[in-house]
User: What shape does this take?
Amino acid sequence: MGAEQPAAAQPAVTRQPFGSAAGTPVEVYTLTNRHGVEVRAITYGAIITSIRVPDRKGVIADVALGFDSIEGYLTPHPYFGALVGRYANRIGNARFALDGRTYLLAANNGPNHLHGGVRGFDKYVWAAEPIAGASGIAFTRTSRDGEEGYPGRLEVRVSYVLTDASELVIEYQATTDRATPVNLTQHTYFNLAGHAAGTILDHELTIDADRFTPVGESLIPTGVLATVEGTPMDFRRATKVGARIDADTEQIRFGRGYDHNWVLNGGGTSPRLAARLVEPASGRTLEVSTTEPGLQFYTGNFLDGTVKGKGGAAYARRSGLCLETQHFPDSPNQPAFPTTILKPGGTYRSKTVWRFGVS
Ligand code: BGC
Assistant: This one.
């Protein structure tokens, strides 16, 4: 007879070494729930390195693109699993004006600034601690005044909590001592058939958005909120990602596929359903709910098989897709867009829930 079993499994979080970044030790946290779902995240970049979820037969697969070891994350890669900030997405011409001053940022994407610059939040080791009473982890870091050209010392907290309803609850919080733009997101590339299973073109997607923000050639919004009606951007009914991805329209050409921000319907302070993704063969589903006004849907158009991921997988074009909850791109230069400016005394709060299931 063995030791007495606890009445119910306790929420589980474990911590292990994951190499080091420029001499700083990196750790991996593993979150699990009672349905066999397992999420791993590392202290480098608060990067989500794997998400293991069952299919309709109970077969578990890792549905997040990424690397097996820290070395992969230290070499240039397109933000696999990354926590992106201080400003996720693009800022046009890598500059913005605020309170009568012009701030110059790194032009790390053609003429534009992308995902926080040369060394964004995804390239720092964060402090981390398990969240008591949950299968969760809280990451914190201080972004100094002037980091990557942004004003203000920003105190950031991001938490990942895995629930027994197979939700990963992502909460972002930040405060500043000077006015600054803030726009944080999670850049996981999903492939619900498995991270090495090929393209995402057969996934079926629904986005609850009547409008999107059309872009110019360098992917900066024109400022117009355009209807999705009659365009390849209409995902109000479940549609295969690949059905119109090479349509002969200017927007699809500019994005080389989907690489656009949708204006989510509804609003409010609690997360509402923004998107639903279904992989018909495995039956795996993902529902994304958020408090954010926008969703960047990116189909991995710039992947080209040169990045060797987990288990040596060559991540080919469109082998993963991102559903990045966010404020609209280039908001600091677009007065008509919802503001992204955080002021001293205020608190930036954002919440996104990924709910995994089967159909
Ligand atoms: C952007 C893409 C970019 C990718 C990787 C996405 O959020 O919209 O244009 O290539 O991130 O950097």
About this structure: The CA atoms of residues 143 and 257 lie 34 Å apart. Residues 78-79, 115, 219, 259, 296, 298, 302, 322, 324 surround beta-D-glucopyranose (CB under 6 Å). The chain has a mean pLDDT of 96.
